[in-house]
Amino acid sequence: MKNAIRVPAAGSQPSSMEKLPGTFLRVALTAVLLWLAFRHADWSRIGAGLAHMQAIWFASAIVVLAFQLGLAAQRWRWIALGCGATVSTASALRYIFISQFFSQTLPATIGADGARIWYLGRDTGDWKPAFYSVFIDRGIGGLALGILVVAILPGAFSKIQDPAGRLSLLIAGSSCLVALAAVMMIGSLPWLDRWAATRHVRTIAVTGGKLFGDSATAAKITITSIAIHLFSVLAIWCIAQALTAPLTATGAIFLVPPVMLITMVPISVAGWGVRESAMIAALGYAGIGNSQGLLISLLFGAAGFVLGLAGGGVWIAQRRKD
Q: Among 154, 173, 193, 317, which residue has the least CB neighbours within 10 Å?
């Protein structure tokens, strides 16, 4: 690559050496979280579950997640167009698959996001719209998930009787709504344009507001964002069917989105460890034991890893093309 990604006036980027402590910390946290999830696992039951797993259902989960990436590519394309960056559907899909590879191999989302910024910025020759589009896309995804979690609270509370669990769910969903309100407030504060860093933040907020100012675009992005998260629910339900776990479609809708929201916290490699602990706790309310809940989470991660490998193939092909 001949050029480095630059976002004008947005502040200097940390060097590789400066990133190392954070990388090691995430890897260490991932190991600790996985150990906590694994320590009470019954490996004989996990082995039996794998031995009797219905492969067609697991393959269905992979297909569902592949379609999810397609939806994610389309949403990002719409957002990029709103930011002033033109990207074809094929290119957006290709870059999304490449980002899936980096999301599975690097200990934070910055690798996945950086890949999208790099390819879109290189294609358009303008780095700011590329940076803004990825940042807005990431934010909209998180906010949509938070709104979905808040929407299913009554049903989730019917499954979760533990007061601590209910409180955690309420805090997680409400935090996303607070974040949405904060973004809207930032966009209405023109004095933030006085400083370079805050000017970029406000530009992102204003651009996102303009996207949702058009009813047609807002409807497309909103529906697609909700569908993306429901595809995660569907994939986990498919995996539960593969293991003949007692997870109904309704139970999956009420219990899985909170797990996905917690998994978005960027403290581990590709969400490993965080997802397992959250999945075990959530699926326990559906009557699924710790070992089976752990296996469902591991297989969900494995399905994502399979798509990451496919993304790696796309990345290699792209490098040869370049």
A: 154
Query: How far is the C-alpha of 113 from the C-alpha of 138, rounded, in Å?
Result: 9
How far apart CA 248 and CA 2 sit, in angstroms, is: 52
For 117-134, the DSSP string reads HHHHHHHHS-HHHHHHHH
Q: What is the pLDDT of residues 257-270, one digit of tens each?
A: 988 888 877 666 66
Instruction: Answer for the pair 9, 196: CB distance below 8 angstroms, yes or no.
Output: yes
Residue 270 zone, left/alpha/beta (φ > 0; ψ -120 to 50; rest)? left
Contacts 24+ apart (CB under 8 A), 303-307: 303/58, 303/61, 303/62, 303/65, 303/235, 303/239, 304/65, 304/100, 304/104, 304/270, 305/104, 306/62, 307/62, 307/65, 307/66, 307/69, 307/97, 307/100
pLDDT in tens, 179-202: 778 877 887 888 888 888 788 888
Q: How many CB atoms lie within 10 A of CB 231?
A: 20
Q: pTM of the predicted model, to two decimals?
A: 0.84
- Geometric angle at alpha carbon 262, from 113 and 200, rounded to 5°: 40
Contact 206, 187 (CB under 8 A): yes
In sequence order, which residues have a C-beta less than 8 Å from that of residue 298 and are 6 or more positions away? 276
The secondary structure of residue 14, as a DSSP letter, is: P
**Using an 8 Å Cβ cutoff, are 143 and 218 in contact?**
no
